[in-house]
Amino acid sequence: MRYSLLSGGKRLRSILCLAACEAVGGDVAAALPFAAAIEMLHAYSLIHDDLPAMDNDAVRRGMATNHIVFGEGCAILAGDALLTEAFTLMARRTDTVSHRRVVSIIQKLGEAAGSLGMVGGQFADLQAQGAEEVSPKQLLSIHTRKTGALIRASVQIGGIVGQANPKTLVRLGVYGEKIGLAFQIADDILNIEGDAKKTGKAVGSDSTHQKATYPGIYGGVAQAKRDALRLVDDALEAVKPLGLPADRLGQIAHYMIKRQK
Amino acid sequence: MRYSLLSGGKRLRSILCLAACEAVGGDVAAALPFAAAIEMLHAYSLIHDDLPAMDNDAVRRGMATNHIVFGEGCAILAGDALLTEAFTLMARRTDTVSHRRVVSIIQKLGEAAGSLGMVGGQFADLQAQGAEEVSPKQLLSIHTRKTGALIRASVQIGGIVGQANPKTLVRLGVYGEKIGLAFQIADDILNIEGDAKKTGKAVGSDSTHQKATYPGIYGGVAQAKRDALRLVDDALEAVKPLGLPADRLGQIAHYMIKRQK
């Protein structure tokens, strides 16, 4: 559990949670346990995705993947325990966040992570590997669920901790949705033209796994870059009414497409 | 997810949850979603336990195990999604149970299921397989965590829904702990002298997997049966002060050691 959770990474989802809380004028310290729970949930998903029965990846964040180091049985259990601990940790933090909001956050995270969200996206991804043809609609549906749902939930959870009103939560949701897709497009591009030393992952692995990618389906790398830029603009537009406190959300949106890892 | 969740089984944990709610004079209908969540969590643990990297079992409840039917990748994801849905479902049921109690239930179930509970027990079990020697203390620790923790939590969650006072929750905890161990002893005995047609599992599989069992370590089957009987007596003693409403808890305790599957 420690090996994968504490192996670095961009901490994007937890940072988004904190930045969203800040953007709505909330107490950022109160959001920390929830940000940590989100990272636990993310770490579990990476451990299970890397398993031989899934994407069968040996390298992640520049390190050997969990099952390579500890064996498959232990890796499955480490993922299970991280997922469980994510929910348990959130249920423990009721000193600064009301019970009502904790329940609402658990529901939001659970729905984003479950069979209609992240796990559903991973299953569709698994089924699409090596498939004759993946339609643009299918690919978008995979991306939206597999990575988009958790990114969107991370932003909204920060908003809920910060006691955002329903209208602002919708704005944060749009922001999260747009940068979530921009993130995945950037990920697909990095897998084609990135530097393995920086990404910590094998470049070209999508092609090896015959995975459908955004540039492959939506008119090449240059077009994909234009689409990602437009998504970032849309994201910025959504949180503009929040003013200066949302400045960091704007910076993160820009980072989405500039990042090299 | 449906294949494993709806494949029958004894529904012991959910029945315990409902019976405990009844025992403290609570609204049994309000406990139903929580009982369902507990079954989801139990189903996930069976799917993952049966995987090739774990116990590598091909038959469960008289049917082919999940990974045999759907493949390993799908089985891992079905378990992940059932675990996630268990927490999500509980977080949705705040119409009849207060937010405060929902949070407390999620914490209780998470702690019983996580690295200090069920997953920790499964990991210790995995490590102990084929080990030179398993001490009585180690075996008890595996049983307590792997099956005992969830059974105990199921009883207490029914009590929390039923608004039991702290003293009664402790009594329910003792009851759950005692029948949890009695259940596991009976399981080990059934694996030795049970009827595969009734248990739906391969008889003798513990011996094949070189698994340490209670009868193997604590003086044989006859002694194990005596120990289980004493545990059932202790369990009955613990809930005796609750009177007639706890009658069904008493019946379930007796069933623990009489069951043939």
3D architecture notes:
The structure is a homodimer of 261-residue chains. Helices cover 72% and strands 2% of the residues of chain A. Chain A is mostly helical. The first copy, chain A, has a single domain, classed as Farnesyl Diphosphate Synthase (Orthogonal Bundle), CATH 1.10.600.10. A two-stranded antiparallel sheet of chain A has the order 1-2. In chain A, strand 1 and strand 2 form a beta hairpin. In chain A, helix 2 crosses helix 8, helix 7 (118-128) packs antiparallel against helix 8 (136-161) and helix 13 (220-239) packs antiparallel against helix 14 (247-258). In chain A, 52% of the residues are buried. The mean pLDDT of chain A is 93. At the A-B interface, helix 5, helix 6 and helix 7 of A face helix 5, helix 6 and helix 7 of B.
Compact description:
The structure is a homodimer of 261-residue chains. Chain A has 261 residues and is mainly alpha-helical.
Shape of chain A from CA axes?
Answer: globular
End-to-end Cα distance of chain A, whole Å, is 23 Å
Question: Within the largest sheet of chain A, what's the order of strands?
Answer: 1-2
List the total number of helices of chain A.
Answer: 14
Largest sheet report of chain A: 2 strands, antiparallel
CATH class assignment of chain A: Mainly Alpha
Secondary structure: helix percent of chain A: over 70%
**CATH homology superfamily name of chain A:** Farnesyl Diphosphate Synthase
How many domains is the backbone of chain A divided into? 1
- Summed over residues and divided by their number, the pLDDT of chain A gives a mean of 93
The most extensive interface, with participating residues per chain, is: A-B, 42 and 42 residues
- Taken in chain order, the helices and strands of chain A follow as HHHEEHHHHHHHHHHH
